Amino acid sequence: MLRKLVAQAFAARDHLLNGVSHPHIEKYSQRYLARVARICWLAPDMISAMLDGTQPPQLTGRRLIRANAIPLDWPSQRAMFGFA
User: Fold this and answer.
1) CA angle centred on 29, ends 26 and 33, rounded to 5°
2) Which residues lie below 8 Å from residue 28, measured CB to CB, with a gap of 6+?
């Protein structure tokens, strides 16, 4: 689930910033795409862990999508999502 979400996040970012259309995201609303695109700006090691399946067990796609006020600094992101 998280691998798909990360792929959608990068596709959503490209769509929102550059107008690039991608079949994996065409059925979603702009609001959802904006929420998903935020995942692109997580710390690189967090994204790698999600792709490898080694993220903390409490980190779910639902938690990522619903997270409000994700910190910009990577140490705070790690603490927020259980990586620290």
Assistant:
1) 80
2) 8, 12, 36
Helices (H) and strands (E) in the chain, counts: 5, 0
Report the distance separating Cα 51 and Cα 76, nearest Å: 20
pTM over 0.90: no
Q: 30-78, pLDDT tens digit by residue?
A: 999 999 999 999 999 999 999 999 999 999 999 999 998 999 999 999 9
- Domain that residue 41 falls in: 2-80
CA dihedral 50, 67, 5, 51 (to 10 degrees): -10
DSSP for 39-61, written as a single string = GGGS-HHHHHHHHHT-S-TT--H
- Residue 38: DSSP 8-state: G
Number of domains in the chain: 1
